[in-house]
Amino acid sequence: DIQMTQSPSSLSASVGDRVTITCRASQSISSYLNWYQQKPGKAPKLLIYTASTLQSGVPSRFSGSGSETDFTLTISSLQPEDFATYYCQQSYSTLTFGQGTRLEIK
Amino acid sequence: QLQLQESGPGLVKPSETLSLTCTVSGGSISSSNYYWGWIRQPPGKGLEWIGSIYYSGSTYYNPSLKSRVTISVDTSRNQFSLKLSSVTAADTAVYYCASHRIVGASQFFDYWGQGTLVTVSS
Predict the structure, then answer these.
(1) Which residues of B touch A89 (CB under 8 A)?
(2) B61, A102 in Cβ contact below 8 A?
(3) Is pLDDT of B115 > 90?
(4) Looking at residue B58, what is its pLDDT?
(5) Is residue A11 within 8 Å of residue A85, measured between CB atoms?
(6) CB distance from A63 to chain B under 8 Å?
(7) What is the per-residue pLDDT for B33?
(8) B61 φ, ψ to 5°?
(9) H-run or E-run covering A64
(10) Do residues B87 and B20 lie in contact, with contact meaning Cβ atoms separated by under 8 Å?
């Protein structure tokens, strides 16, 4: 299986901050990388697919970039509702998720 | 907009079979745009894809679980189901059903059920 490693595992930030979360694949996955947001007790929500395509209805402050093995999710200006756990997921081979990045309020 | 809802027992005994059903509303499970998938999340841990099914019955499973998993579809009821056999405490998790969209070679889950906690315990 392709291993997905997210960094950092947790992050503290303030409202208005620009935040970047990284996801690294154990081998090249082209652009087959998706990002989800999960709030406590809720199902994950798709934010971005195919590395950089914003899912319908997702605010434009979220953006994704990268290819091959290195990917980033950027939130340009953190809002209170953005504090959550974020997961990456690859679809190049057997579907696997990263371990998650918990974004907390500073 | 698609809506998905999981149903099934919240408690299963070790060595028995876990059975869950996902009911899809707001769209047809026979849509050519979607597979239908199961994902689980042990308490406090990350997400694991279990497997997915197309309305025709074509399935593919996570190799790590394949020997114990069966996913089936009932198009007349707009439902798909998961069976996981020989469960242990390690199978305790929140189980989600989701629409599994394929765009070219990209695959992602765009609509999710609320999830149901299944505990394996005697």
Answers:
(1) 47, 108-109
(2) no
(3) yes
(4) 96
(5) no
(6) no
(7) 87
(8) -125, 155
(9) strand A62-67
(10) no
CA distances, A72 to each of A24, A48, B7 (Å): 9, 11, 36
> For A14-26, how does the pLDDT look when each residue is reduced to its tens digit (9 = 90+)?
999 999 999 999 9
Q: Within 10 A of A92 (CB to CB), how many other CB atoms are there?
A: 18
What are the tens digits of pLDDT across the range B25-76? 999 999 988 999 999 999 999 999 999 999 999 999 999 999 999 999 999 9
CB-based contact B48 A97, cutoff 8 Å: yes
pLDDT of residue B46: 97
User: Measured between alpha carbons, how far apart are the two ends of chain B, in Å?
Assistant: 39
Are the C-beta atoms of residues A6 and A100 closer than 8 Å to each other? yes
Residue A49 is nearest to which of B48, B108, B115, comparing CB atoms?
A: B108
Map tokens 């994950």 to a residue: A44
Instruction: Check if the beta carbon of residue A35 is closer than 8 Å to that of residue A84.
Output: no
Alpha carbons within 13 angstroms on the beta-carbon side of residue A82 total 26
Q: Which helix (H) or strand (E) holds B73?
A: strand B69-74
Please enumerate in sequence order all residues whose Cβ is within 8 A of that of A18, keeping only pairs 6 or more positions apart, or say none: A74, A75, A76, A77, A78
State both tokens at A54. Answer: 């914003």
Task: Copy the structure tokens of residue B88.
Answer: 């242990």
Which residue from A minimizes the CA distance to B97? Answer: A43
Percent pLDDT > 90 in chain A is 97
Token reading at B105: 């070679």
